[in-house]
Amino acid sequence: MSAPLSRYPRRHGATIDQRAAWRTAGAGQGIHWPEIDEDLSPEALAEYVPDRRQLLGRKR
Length: 60
Fold this sequence. Notes:
About 30% of the residues lie in helices and about 15% in strands. It has helices at about 10, 15-20, 40-45, 50-55; strands at about 25, 30-35, 40. The chain has a three-stranded antiparallel sheet with strand order 1-2-3. The chain is globular. The protein starts with 8 loop residues before the first helix and ends with a helix.
């Protein structure tokens, strides 16, 4: 699963090192970035619905 960084402003504005400094959270069910105080659950990631053009690999 993946989603664009632009959907997550804190991570989007973070440095590469800050984004790389993550740990598991929620009994191993989520991800936490302590340096930017950001959390992500599998449910939140699953809610992302990419633009149909992204799925097809085309730009209009």
